[in-house]
Amino acid sequence: MLKRLLAALIGVGAGLALFGAYVEFVRLGGHLSPDLAIVGAAAVTFASAVGVFALMALDRPAFRGARAALKLNEDPAVEFVFPFKGQNLAQIAMKPETPLAMALARFGNTFARPASEMNKAIMVTLKASRRISFPTVTLQQLFLMLKEFNLQHVLLLDDRDHFIAYLPGKRALKEFTGSDGAEKITKYIVSVLDHPENSEIVHEIGGAAQSDTIKSAQDIGDAQKELWKSEAIQGLVVVRGSKPVGYISRMDVLTLHAGLP
Description:
2 domains; four-stranded mixed sheet; 8 helices; 40% helix; elongated
């Protein structure tokens, strides 16, 4: 309310100043063709325009002017980071030597029941081994089993839990459950786990590579700079220390940087 009143006063003041200038001009002997009523109307119009612009400036969100300092672990940015842990996220973790049945044992018969009965989103974490590669057929079985479920994240880690690559869950299901699913699993998961230096290949299916990271203590300006490195980067994995803790998409980084929330 105070902002609207202040904007109105600014507009009225601007109009009076314009009108006063005209009156003084006439008093000193100046002559103009428009009569006083036309000039008054012009002053009112001018005052209204100034008032509107003043209100827009006063109503602008406060954090826009300092958006580069908005950190990823602060509101509202933290609300745009999809976490890798939480009460509403079921975790499936596997190593190459882990049988699928063993990885799913703690879920009982959850995945044998209709997907509509599952009230949690799912995250799959695949951890590399120095001894053997992931069997493609095991991963194919896993993704086919999850096809009707809400798979949100697929995270690839090395044997020390360091980040290698990230795949959006819905895109992973689309790519890995088709007729060429086995080929794509080998290309985008098995080979990437074996050769992390080639992780940028996951950009082809909307994933984040090993270098596509941002620290949780960094700000939105830093995140945007990372995105500027390549049009292929669709999002960044947020890390705390050396551990990946969440994911933020390109669109959400740009939204936050523009100060739209």
